[in-house]
Automatic annotation (TrEMBL):
NCBIfam families: lin0512_fam. Keywords: GTP-binding, Nucleotide-binding. The keyword GTP-binding applies. The lineage of its organism: Bacteria, Bacillati, Bacillota, Clostridia, Peptostreptococcales. It comes from Tindallia californiensis. The keyword GTP-binding applies. It comes from the Bacteria. This is Lin0512 family protein.
Length: 120
């Protein structure tokens, strides 16, 4: 049976370019930078961190634009999975053609990262 060990939340933004994947990667990085999984080894005795499951939920304005494998690539360990849903936000920013903008929006993406472990 798998049980959740930790849940972390993060957010990421792309101020110019409206790149949902870039913002999603930043959101996942934001979440995992605030966690130390020392209890996996010290309390549970897990030696191989590829034995854990890491599930990411992404909420963004345009879910179809997310390149899932790229987002998962920022996770350093674990059996990785992802779910992408509509959410996050796009707010008015500044259109600068030279920055690669397609419009004037700032894209904000939310991430929830869940680490689960097998227990008897």
């Amino acid at each position: 049976m798998w049980k959740r060990y930790i849940i972390e939340l993060g957010f990421g933004a792309d101020l110019h370019g409206q790149d949902m994947t870039k913002a999603a990667k930043r959101a996942v990085e934001d979440a995992i930078r605030r966690s130390c999984l020392c209890g996996l080894e010290e309390v549970l005795g897990i030696q191989d961190f590829d034995e854990i499951r890491v599930h990411v939920t992404i909420a963004c304005p345009n879910p179809e634009a997310i390149q899932e494998s790229e987002v998962l690539s920022v996770l350093p360990v674990g059996q990785k999975s992802i779910q992408v849903r509509k959410g996050g936000m796009a707010v008015p920013g500044l259109y600068v053609q030279g920055f690669g903008d397609v419009d004037d929006s700032v894209v904000v993406v939310n991430a929830c990262v869940e680490v689960s472990v097998a227990v008897d």
